[in-house]
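# nightly structure sweep
# worker-07 picked up a monomer target from the shared queue
# config: single-sequence mode, recycle default, output format = structure tokens
# input follows
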Amino acid sequence: MKAFDFLPPPQRTLPQMLLRQAEQFGDRRLLDVGGVSWDHRDPAHLAATRAGTLARAGIVRGDRVALMSSNRAEFLECFLGCGWVGAVSVPINTASMGPQIEYFLTNSQASLLLIEAAFLERLQTTDLRKTSLQAIWVLDATDLPDTLQSIPIIAWPAACEPLPPAPVGPGETLAILYTSGTTGPSKGVLCPHAQYYWWGVNTLRVLDVNADDVLCTTLPLFHINALNTFAQATLVGCRVVFEPRFSASGFWASMRACGATVVYLLGAMVPILLAQPAGPNERGHRVRTGLGPGVPSAAAADFLARTGVNLLEGYGSTESSFVIATTPDSPQHGVMGKVLPGFQARVADEDDVELPPGVAGELLLRADEPYAFASGYFNMPEKTVETWRNLWLHTGDRVTCDADGTLRFVDRIKDAIRRRGENISSYEVEQVLLSHPDVAAVAVFPVRSELAEDEVMAALTLRSGCTLEPAALIAWCAARLQYFAVPRYIDIVDDLPRTENGKIQKYKLRERGVTATTWEQAPVSRSK
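# output follows
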């Protein structure tokens, strides 16, 4: 591996990564985000001083700190400070509304919340009395009350005297990353320090990242994808640029302006970029490669022809690490790639028995290195046992494996929806719809969109004597769900298909899809 030496197991922790980084790369430029720049020597110092502030606020090793912020330096500073003091970061999707925020805070038992002032209003529909919050730190705070539901509100505090790093081990939890629940509430994935290390190591190996690269991502820091990009730069000594958001019209101009050589895209982003008028910026850049999980093969080929950038496919769930990837010479027809060194993959039936090549089954994963995968779900022991049964991580994805070890994605086994790069829990959308007084029963399921991703569809029945306009129901959802989870399609039906014991048969609804009676709203987009 170029320009990188593996850390010994005891040093695969965030504090040790930052200390090594400061010693080896010092004055090299590390970070540009929101008008703030860091050198490689800065993160260790910033982590130590922010750890001092956290300690002064009463945060101790093992406490949870929730972070709800857009891409900005304070998010990273707090994330690093938590890792330094041994606390656990809990990133919250900035699209979350009151009910989701309340759940994340309650489930994680967070003691402290860092939040941008722009999102503070959403806490008005959150019952903070159910949480363990002791204080709320607010970014961009002006004219704020002293308390919110009796919890102190404090403007982003200044850094304190630096603390030495806590003696955390590689298996201790660095972050709780919430992933969508499929048949229940969202699950908090326990991400150990060593898993974060392996995310960075495996990705930079696949992309052949070196110290001269400039990594640029428009993805949000509350997801592991962008946090992983920071880990890559930390480990190899290169520079990373975090853009505030994805803008289709301004994407290539941004890449050119920052001198990006490696980019990070998700499936639907590539068709969106290809829908833009072709122009000189698509070639007037330094980008040599990119990561594009879930990009349709035809779109990837068109992208290469127009931009000269060969996107590599990859696979990694929040529970795993980056474990499967293609190479520049891999075939371009629905291939996930091959399992990376240090990991094992198995395609298995419902009893975890390995299936022969070409037969579709569930993808099971296992890591050779300790703590390279998540250690379970926070406060969900039954779900932990279910997902990690028989010592294999059960991904819930159906794949096939060729005789040469090439894996191909077929579909999802889990009742989850993937839209705009976000995993959506059909269960959570159903709960919001069922909270409407006119709705009797509902099923939420995915249908394919023109962008080769999922759209959210809901089929529902109404209570006796009730009528309901779909547009009004969408407005109800918009105030209670993340924008990407609001259904695009509503089908009000007389009855839902059910089994003999009354369970809704969603597969029949998926097969039926959009019908002549289906109401459609215009697609919601957050790109420019």
